[in-house]
Amino acid sequence: MVSNGKNITTKKRLKIFLANPRGFCAGVVRAIDIVNRSLEKYGPPIYVRHEIVHNKYVVESLRKKGARFVNELDEVPEGAITIFSAHGVAKKVFGQAELHGLDVVDATCPLVEKVHEEGRKYYKNGMEVVLIGHKNHPEVVGTMGQVPGNVKLISSIQDALDFEPADTKRISYITQTTLSIDDTSEIVNILKTRFPDIKGPNLKDICYATQNRQTAIRQIAKKVDLILVVGSKNSSNSNRLCEIGEAVNVPSYLVENKESLKLEWFKNAKSVGISAGASAPEVLVDELIESLKIEFDLSLEILDGQEEKVFFPLPDRLNS
Asked: Which residue, 98, 219, 228, 253, is the most exposed by fewest CB within 10 angstroms?
């Protein structure tokens, strides 16, 4: 802020461009609703294996209502309501739950389940299955445990170049849903060039939310001096939004909440783009903007973007 010597302060002007769409996707909304509805119907505590979605604010909010987050199923009392996260789990985890006598509510995103089904279909048709995704990501771990046989994980261009299938004419690929068409295109093109007979999903089967948010951040990067992405550090899709901004030389920062802001970021910025990962609630975006209003004279513009009308229903047991 700059003082004119008469105890009057003039705030620096800052133009805010809000990405559209941003924040929660339908799979995240469904997963959070499953936890909330389970708490209402069965009462606390209910147990959730791993984070229901990758966002600290969401997890802590649910914890305060009576959700207990565990790493392993042996931490859950016999017979307790147990929810599996939106990322999906391996088949063996369902087996462990049955052995422990747990009452499972599965919050796996339907788009993730679709990938599982595609992988099993390819395997059943006698094909070797390749999974394009990030090593150790919960969704990848779950998918590799849902598809029979030896699923080959390809995480990089080099992996695609090094891959040697058992039969070059009987190969298929599936992808982690939190990767966009753009994220996977180079790897897919290499695989298709090396193995022309490879089978894979239609491009429209790529997660709509990931693609839409990345398209929006590319649009916003053309207009701003700085990008802020609301999301947790362990959120794959949130980190990717920052990487897209950095790739076109726009300083981009991942912020978990308003407390993460650093004023030095804005020193040379006249315009700022704000987005949020698919697991970040809108309340965090609102709080971020309110915090910036204290320091700057803001003007706000919401960009046009792809309208999302996707809705995933809750499991039948929670609707009664």
From this structure: 98
**What are the tokens at 207?**
């997660």
Cβ atoms of 143 and 106 within 8 Å: the answer is no
Token look-up 């299955």 returns 129
Q: Does residue 288 contact residue 88 with C-beta atoms inside 8 Å?
A: no
Does pLDDT of 116 surpass 50? yes
Give this prediction's pTM.
Answer: 0.92
- Cα distances (angstroms) measured from residue 200 to each of 98, 111, 121, 127, 277: 33, 15, 11, 11, 26
Known catalytic residues are 139
pLDDT, mean over the chain = 93
Confidence of residue 3 (pLDDT cuts 50, 70, 90): very low
Domains of the chain, with CATH numbers? Answer: 2-24+208-302 (3.40.1010.20), 26-108 (3.40.50.11270), 111-204 (3.40.1010.20)
Choose among 72, 68, 58, 63: nearest CA to 28: 58
